[in-house]
Amino acid sequence: MPDIEPLAFVFADDGLVPNSSMPFLVYKGAVDVANDHPEKTIEGLFGANGWGAMWRNGVYDYPHYHSTVHEALGVARGHARVQFGGDHGKALDISAGDVAILPAGTGHQLISASEDFCVVGAYPPGPPMQITRPTPENHAKALKTIPEVKLPKTDPVMGADGPLVRLWKRS
């Protein structure tokens, strides 16, 4: 795997979506998915780097975040436009081979997608993923749970020496 540096974005807390002081990361074209089993290719990469509890699907078309766990989204097929970081965040185009890594609290919502769009989701060891919608009550709770989420020991794309390990630090 080439040594690639991800795009990094820090989204501010907007009062409903807490986001994170740690950067949201996007690896463009990180995974070679030009094969007959792109989902298995991504699952193998994530699994080899210690990220599990995987699923295959799309991205929900309503704003949400995860307040108890970090998330990796590997695009296996197709392409989509996703709003990351809540209403004041950034809409990004992601496509097959890209991997987005969301620190706990990072808002995301599907804007549009190709019919064949498929992502593989994965999580570092820890509590199960819970879907949290942006409400004032959920925001208040998330501000307590997000700081408790353990930092991953590995980057889901690049492993123990990957950029995530270097870039994600508690302030």
UniProtKB/TrEMBL annotation:
Which InterPro entries did the record assign? Cupin_2, RmlC-like_jellyroll, RmlC_Cupin_sf, UCP019307_cupin, YjiB-like
Domain called Cupin type-2: residue spans: 61-116
Q: Where is the signal peptide?
A: none
Pfam families in alphabetical order: Cupin_2
Instruction: Kindly give the PANTHER family that the UniProt entry links to this protein.
Output: BLR7373 PROTEIN (PTHR36448), CUPIN TYPE-1 DOMAIN-CONTAINING PROTEIN (PTHR36448:SF2)
Check the record and name the Gene3D superfamilies matching this protein: Jelly Rolls
Q: Please report the name of this protein according to its UniProt entry.
A: Uncharacterized protein YjlB
The record's CDD domains line, in alphabetical order, gives: cupin_YjlB-like (cd02219)
